[in-house]
UniProtKB/TrEMBL annotation:
Signal peptide: none annotated. It comes from Faecalicatena orotica. One of its GO terms (molecular function) is ATP binding. This is ABC-2 type transport system ATP-binding protein. It comes from the Bacteria. PROSITE patterns: ABC_TRANSPORTER_1 (PS00211), ABC_TRANSPORTER_2 (PS50893). Coiled coil: none annotated. InterPro entries: AAA+_ATPase, ABC_transporter-like_ATP-bd, ABC_transporter-like_CS, P-loop_NTPase. Keywords: ATP-binding, Nucleotide-binding, Transport. Belongs to the ABC transporter superfamily. Residues 5-232 form the ABC transporter domain.
Amino acid sequence: MSAEIKIEHLNQYYGKKQALKEVDLTIQQGMFGLLGRNGAGKTTLMKVLATLLPKSDGRITVCGIPVEDSARIRKMTGYLPQDFSMYPNMSVYEAMDYLGVLSGLSTAERRKRIPYLLEKVNLQNDRKTKVKALSGGMKRRLGIAQAILHNPRILIVDEPTAGLDPEERVRFRNLLCEIAEERIVILSTHIVGDIEATCEQIAVLNNGEILYQGTVSGLIEMADGKVYTAQISRHELPQLKERYIVTSMLTLGNNVMIRFIAEKKPFASAESCDAGVEDAYMYLMNGEGSEA
Ligand SMILES: Nc1ncnc2c1ncn2[C@@H]1O[C@H](COP(=O)(O)OP(=O)(O)OP(=O)(O)O)[C@@H](O)[C@H]1O
C-alpha cells in the first residue's frame, strides 16, 4: 500500500490562539511542499503530524493509523526540526550510533545502516568530524540522516534550507527528492524557489488556513494573464507600488523595469508575460483582485 496522510477538519489551539483552522489535506507519496509566511502555522502542522503536539480537534490518519497512536506513528515518521542540533562533542559516526541505540537498532543493523546513510547524505568522509565542526549545510544533511535512521515511510522537514548557500541548498533539495522516491517527504518553507524546484504537490497556508492545495502548475495558472512588465520612470514607482503588487524590479538608470500583477492590462506600455510561481504566490497571498 502506498503511503498516505489524511487530515480532516484539523483545528489547533495554543490556549485561545487558533494556529490552524479547519485544515483539510491529503498527502501522498513524493515531495509535498508546505508554503507560507512566518507564523502561518507550518511548524504547528508538522509537529502535530510528528506527534510532538497533541491535536486539539479534527481527524488525522497516517497510512490508515490514527495520529493518536503515537508509538506506531513515530516508528514510521522521521522529523527534522527547524532548530536541529545534536551532541556537538561527538563525532558524526558516534552521534549516529548513539541515536541508533536509542532507536532500538541492533549493533549489526547500525553497522550496516549508518555507513549507508552517511554515504547517502555525502558525509562518508566526515564520520570522525565533531558535530560542532560541521558547516550549516552538513549539519542539515546529518539531520536528515538521523531522521531516516529507522527507515521511516514519512519524513518531515521544517524549513531546512534557511541559511544555506545556493550550492548547498540545491544539494540538499536533491537529497530530499531522492528520499521522496520511496516515501512521503513533507517540506515546509517560506522560500518559493524551494517548492518550485522540488515539489509536485503543494499547499499554501496563511493565518492557519489552507489557501491553496494542488500542483505547482495549478498555482501558476491562477496568475495566468495577470502578470505584466513595464519600464517606468523612477518617480512613478511609489504610485505604482501603491496600486499593484510589484513582484520584481530592476533599476536601469533613471528608469525601472518592473514586473507586477494586475487583473487587466493597466496602461498601454505594460506588456503581458508568463506567470511564475512567485507571481502566483503573491497573487494568492494578496487576495483575489491583487491590486494593492
Ligand atoms: N507555543 C506557542 N504558544 C502560543 N502561540 C504559538 C506557539 N507556537 C506557535 N504559536 C503561534 O501560532 C502561530 C503559528 O506558528 P507556527 O510556528 O506554526 O508558524 P510557522 O508557519 O511555522 O512560522 P515560522 O516559519 O516562523 O516557523 C503563530 O501565530 C505563532 O505565534
